[in-house]
């Protein structure tokens, strides 16, 4: 999307949604590449052929990541230990365009076959997806993002507790079932 500005992208968001199946990677992976890149297609009016091919190829790679990790979300968040990075910048000039963490993620994505995923693009993705909170400390969103991240952490803790309870209930039921089988065989 580097050939488009953010205002241009946002003004065409409805077209991107339509062309790219509501951004569903599974549906995008099933798109007919020849139709998508055809000169008269709506998609070709948005992006270059190279970018369109990258979008479809990346959708295929997301499917593989989902198969391996259970979700793309789990894979991506694993790079930041499932907790957003909070930067606490005072001035815009302090905000980097890429970081070592983005470089690691970029290299892993490239190794997996993703395209157009350099460290600068990936760092921008990390900011947009909430993996890093680069709002200036004076920004009203800074604290909101921290609060949201804490909620995500609490949800993760709650999910682990729920999993443990479910495991305990299952173990108890299995134990009772075994006892009943042993009792029935005596």
Automatic annotation (TrEMBL):
Keywords: Glycosidase, Hydrolase, Metal-binding, Zinc. It is an enzyme of class 3 (hydrolase). GO terms for biological process: base-excision repair. Zn(2+) binds at residues 135, 139. Gene3D superfamilies: Hypothetical protein, domain 2. The keyword Transferase does not apply. GO terms for molecular function: DNA-3-methyladenine glycosylase activity; metal ion binding. Transmembrane segments: none annotated. Its EC number is 3.2.2.20. InterPro entries: Adenine_glyco (IPR005019), DNA_glycosylase (IPR011257). This is Putative DNA glycosylase superfamily protein isoform 1. It comes from Davidia involucrata.
């Amino acid at each position: 999307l580097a050939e488009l500005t953010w205002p241009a992208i946002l003004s065409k968001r409805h077209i991107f949604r339509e062309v790219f199946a509501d951004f569903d990677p599974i549906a995008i992976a099933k798109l007919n590449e020849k139709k998508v890149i055809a000169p008269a297609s709506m998609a070709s009016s948005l992006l270059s052929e190279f970018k369109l091919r990258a979008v479809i190829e990346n959708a295929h790679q997301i499917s593989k990541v989902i198969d391996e990790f259970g979700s793309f979300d789990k894979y991506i968040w694993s790079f930041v230990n499932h907790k957003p990075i909070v930067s606490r910048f005072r001035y815009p000039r302090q905000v980097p365009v890429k970081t070592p963490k983005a470089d690691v993620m970029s290299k892993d994505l490239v190794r997996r076959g993703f395209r157009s995923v350099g460290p600068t693009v990936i760092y921008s993705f990390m900011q947009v997806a909430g993996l890093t909170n680069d709002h200036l400390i004076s920004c009203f969103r800074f604290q909101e993002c921290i609060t949201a991240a804490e909620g995500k952490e609490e949800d993760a803790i709650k999910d682990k507790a729920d999993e443990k309870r479910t495991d305990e209930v299952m173990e108890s039921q299995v134990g009772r079932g075994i006892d009943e089988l042993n009792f029935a065989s005596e």
